Amino acid sequence: MSLLRVESVSKRFGGITANQDVSFEVGAGKIVGLIGPNGAGKTTMFNCIAGYAPPTTGEIWMNDIKVSGMSPEQCARAGIGRTFQVARTFTSMTALENVMVGAFLINKNVGDARQSAARLLSFVNLGQFRDKPAGSMTISEQRRLAVARALAVKPRLLLMDEVMAGLNPTEVRETVDVVLKIREEGISCLIVEHVLEGIMPIADAIVVLDYGKKIAEGSPEQVSRDPKVIAAYLGDE
Ligand SMILES: Nc1ncnc2c1ncn2[C@@H]1O[C@H](COP(=O)(O)OP(=O)(O)OP(=O)(O)O)[C@@H](O)[C@H]1O
């Protein structure tokens, strides 16, 4: 059963078509990778889904709620959480306080927010940083912190924008472990990623964009054999 449905979405910025007639679905409890060369329109698609930039045409649905045209807050209330390409960490606040910022969006009670934030820090394997300034954490840890903050809003779908970029193989593995745990919780994940060795082994499905259009969709095995996908990536070298 699909949780998110992207239906014929196009997004234009003046003369630039960043997304063109893109359709795909994310099933409940599934991991879907959204990949493609630089400038393919992946972040634009995230912005459309999360309410940061409405589609020019087309519709986006979360179950029976039409979210296209909604504000980011309304999309969050409909169950869409996100992380950003550049982690927006509050560096002088502690790790716990950073996650509490997310928790406060749905629960104004300080005790509840603290408890939920502490649980989520452990969930992303950052329990030891609870009372440390977020600025003292590595990039990899800050990315997982951003994931915990997004989870604090209790999404049913989590959009993750390049959480593995620039990480070493150990850090990629740690991040992959967290993504798998998120799926185990029944939360769907839509992941924009250039680190294909991180996303390919764990994705239930892959959607490939190139120049704004969907050029392939299927299992990781299917898309990695697809001549159109190979050509798009080789053309990007
Ligand atoms: N606000 C904007 N105004 C004008 N053009 C934009 C805007 N946002 C994105 N674009 C253009 O839309 C196209 C798609 O950009 P987008 O950032 O979505 O690609 P991407 O696949 O996320 O790229 P990357 O992998 O490099 O992050 C690009 O040509 C980009 O310059």
UniProtKB/TrEMBL annotation:
Cellular component aspect of the GO annotation: plasma membrane
Domain ABC transporter: 4-236
SMART domains: AAA (SM00382)
InterPro entries: AAA+_ATPase, ABC_AA/LPS_Transport, ABC_transporter-like_ATP-bd, BCA_ABC_TP_C, P-loop_NTPase
GO molecular function: ATP binding; ATP hydrolysis activity; L-isoleucine transmembrane transporter activity; L-phenylalanine transmembrane transporter activity; L-valine transmembrane transporter activity
UniProt keyword terms in alphabetical order: ATP-binding, Cell membrane, Membrane, Nucleotide-binding, Transport
Gene3D superfamilies referenced in this protein's UniProt entry, alphabetically: P-loop containing nucleotide triphosphate hydrolases
Biological processes, Gene Ontology terms: D-alanine transmembrane transport; L-alanine transport; L-isoleucine import across plasma membrane; L-valine import across plasma membrane
Protein name in UniProt: Amino acid/amide ABC transporter ATP-binding protein 1 (HAAT family)
Organism: Undibacterium pigrum
